[in-house]
Structure prediction request, 295 residues.
Amino acid sequence: MAAVTPIRAAGGVVWRPAAGGVEVCLVHRPRYDDWSLPKGKLMAREHPLAAAVREVAEETGVRGQPQVRLPSAHYRRDGIPKVVDYWSMRALSVPRFRGNAEVDRLRWLPPEQAARRLTYPHDARVLRHFVSLPAITAVQVLVRHGQAGKRGAYPGPDSARPLDPVGRAQARALAPLLALVAPDRLVSASPRRCTQTLDPLVSLVELPIEADPSLNEPKPGQDPIDVTAEAAGRLIALATDGVTTVVCSQGKVIPGALARMAALGSPKAWTTPKGTGWLLAYTGPHLTAADRLTP
Prediction:
């Protein structure tokens, strides 16, 4: 008997500041007469993170900024397995809600009240995980540049080596995912292949790329530990500024910097293929969560 392909969906625990803490958003669906977290099915070839942000916007009108990946919910709908991926999302805007046939009511509630209102235990489990997190003060996306051919095959200086066709395609695929976090700054290591990786994002968010040599890989004679320590310090400094930043760096920097910030695991655990990255969430200067981001 052939295995049944699960239904894939995505959504979010959307929150906003409130007196004494936060409020989270629940939606009522008249079709099921239930109260749930906003979510919906993925479209064909859609990335789960993109689907989560889109579905939250469609069901609530809220522009949510993804922050921390939460546990996925697994259950059956009409006998078919369903998997829903969730992220915590800060509400960047809260327009006046307009109900429709799919979602007719919306409530902003303190988490403990929301947990009692939710219809399904799997939604409540996701909410409990959200409540257990420390307050997130900054979001950052850290990516490795796209493919750029062979180091020894480029006739000019290595710093000028450009993305190859595969790398340019990787940059184009990354751009819409990076834009989901609504960045305030774009910061890149200085090699051309790094700044080029962020070029497709520039047209989406209308921000300049700031070149920062502290994110460059070690030069001959430099101690790699010192270089990754400097890069980690720069990433933390950007986070403690309280702004959302997209950062592009290099393969000899990212694993060591993340291992240092996470204070656990070897750099090998943080190996980052070209054209991929990490969604990072901070609490002050501390790295709270890291979720792989792969187009």
Summary: Helices lie at 48-60, 111-117, 121-132, 165-179, 192-205, 224-240, 254-262.
